[in-house]
Amino acid sequence: MPRPLALVLAILALLPGCAALAPRPVAVERRLATLPAERLPLLAPVTIRWNAHLVPWIEAEDDGDLAFALGLVHGHLRGAQVALLRQVARGRLAEIAGPLATDIDHALRVLGFGRAAPAIIAAWPPETRAFMERFRDGLNHALLNGPRPPEFGLLGLRREAVTLEDLLAIGRLAGTDVNWLSWFSLLPQRGRPEFPALWARVLQAGQGQVPVEGTLAALLTGLSRAGSNTVAVSGARSTTGAPILANDPHLGMNLPNLWLVAGMRSPSFHAVGAMVPGLPFLGFGRNPDLAWGGTNMRAASSDLFDVSRLPPEAFREEEAEIRQRLWFSATRRHRVTEHGPVITDARIVPPAGAPLALRWIGHEPTDEITALLRAARARSGPEFRAAFARFGVSAQNMVWAERPRSGGGGGIGRLMAATLPDRPGFQASGPVLDAANPAHTAPWRNLRDARTLPFLDNPPDGVIASSNEPPHLWTSGAPPVGYFFSDADRNERLRQLLAARPRVTPEEVAAVQRDTRSTRAAGIAAGLLARFDALPGGPPEPALLSRLRGWDGDYRAESAGALVFELLLAQLLPRMTPEGGSARGPETGWNFITTFLLRDLDALPPERRAGILREAAAAAAPIAARFADWGEAHRLRAAHWLVNLPVLGRRFVLGDFPSGGSRETPMKTGHAPVTGRHEVTFGSMARHVSEMSDPDANWFVLWGGQDGWLGSAAFADQVPLWREGRMIRVPLRPETVAAEFPALTRLTPAR
What we know:
Elements: H1 3-13, H2 28-33, E1 46-50, E2 56-59, H3 63-89, H4 94-97, H5 102-111, H6 117-123, H7 126-145, H8 150-155, H9 164-174, H10 179-186, H11 195-205, H12 215-223, E3 229-233, E4 244-248, E5 250-252, E6 260-265, E7 270-275, E8 284-286, E9 290-296, E10 302-306, E11 316-322, E12 330-337, E13 340-341, E14 356-360, H13 368-375, H14 381-386, E15 396-402, E16 404-405, E17 408-409, E18 412-417, E19 420-421, E20 432-434, H15 438-441, E21 447-448, E22 455-457, E23 463-466, H16 489-498, H17 506-512, H18 519-533, H19 542-546, H20 560-575, H21 590-603, H22 606-624, H23 630-633, E24 634-639, E25 653-658, E26 669-670, E27 678-679, E28 682-684, E29 686-691, E30 698-702, H24 719-724, E31 728-729, H25 734-740, E32 743-747
Parallel strand pairs: 2-6, 10-20, 24-27
Antiparallel strand pairs: 1-2, 1-32, 3-4, 3-23, 4-29, 5-28, 6-7, 7-8, 8-9, 9-15, 10-14, 11-12, 12-13, 15-18, 16-17, 18-22, 19-21, 24-25, 26-28, 29-30, 30-31
């Protein structure tokens, strides 16, 4: 860094609100020393052991004390992140960004992530309420009494206690229905003559995820649990004779990570795993008897209703007062019906030709907190499945693996953790239903959940692979679940890798998470080369196409074929639309590419097809010449979420690395159509493997690190581990914990 710039930043760091621009390095020991640990509202002392990466292992004599300590740790490690998640979930971004975010806030309030919170709290079992209240108290103690995060001054955030309603809103935000993103991309085209044909193609392709535009869509994409891989192999298929489970969730890639890892032990809990900051449950992990992980079902947990034919008395109006930083408060209004809020009242929701209400399971009083707290204590597959009786959003394929016992156990299985309308099917004309038609509203009077949805125990081949695939790939008894699922390419590749050996080791299962090959991409590339070679006069740009020949679909960072393939796709897709089109939108999604690209090329008149192929190759050639391989263009950036700030954002980039993977490879690194150097924005960002013969055989790693404090030595210390394929052991045996988690914090009661 030039010395004048360094001096300016050092001076700015001393000014109120500017410390985040030049954060001071903070050692792990210093971070532990600033944890408020004395005179706490505890029944007995609590011990927290830490490893060198600031992974906490909490031991408490009381379940409530465990909950308080978990909240304290969340607030200390991720206080700024929890505060920001609350601002998003509650529609309070304008308090940070001023009037620029007012319409986004209004849309978030219309979506109503906290709408069901009062009913959920009222229905909680006593043990859930007690655990949540103690967790909230611990979180607030850290937020109000611990060191003030550097981001607070820059963003204008003040210390503020969180409520149970805030925490539930954060949970609902993480449970966003992924179908919304597809609908937002399609609504502007509804009513046009070409929409029926587009919708038919969407259904045929299954769409999957598409590149999203706009701040609201980007927020929902980055924060919702929209993807993931989870695999389990039975003891008959493992070298240890015990099942192995591995999972890697797919979320936004900015730091801090949207997971933190922890271990815990109290009278009712003994487990290790990953938690969403601000929520008290383990999303994936392991107890002595059971390991589990999940993937998004891509279920349609929502319906859109045209409410234009409802009478005036069917609407009630709500008013939102939105505080704006450095400006006056703004007022926005929207309508609500029994079919949900009228989302088209929000200015930034794409117009749809009629007022549309959103009916979402997330507005129902389902109970994910109780479900996941009970799941963490389950001792068998059936007990684990029973825990999800009232689980609602986001709909998950939950996969489990048991430890072998003398009296049984050692099985693997999967279930649908969801609450869904009991639909007879989906209409072929489009996603919008008529609120005045009783046949369209009837399915919402009868909701199905994990008790009546399909499950699978101990498949004959001893392998379970879940990767957002259509339900028919693993069960014949599924009711209508959703419109859009991932291409089967990723699922087929996972199963292919697991079937490559009669028995697999934990290390081999972990290696599956880092695989970067797409067999369907290889097939499409071969098809494109055949069509280039068949052109009159021979293929254009021979130097470009030579780099693609023989490519096996492996998106490793060193691959030149992956680079050329993606550049050609980005040039072909807009040229194949009727009006010259756009490089973004539904038909740039991977499902569309695998379903339609080659057949659409072949359906064109020969002269137009030849022209498109030649133009695409000519446009891709100079771009490809600037890069040696895929990794030079495809970048995995380690950056704090403040990187999104205008002008100042570049201050928060910590590293920029070549990356392998693509949209639907097991190591998912999502991207839009490639026209040059670009960043991965969504994909694999945490890894977990558990081998069930040994309670200590649990490994985790995060893209980034445990600590959300800017400047902390544990903020991004796991990036090298991630890139090298290494992981951190998080054991269950107390003696192993004592040996491998040497730093000790004692939380002491007030009396």
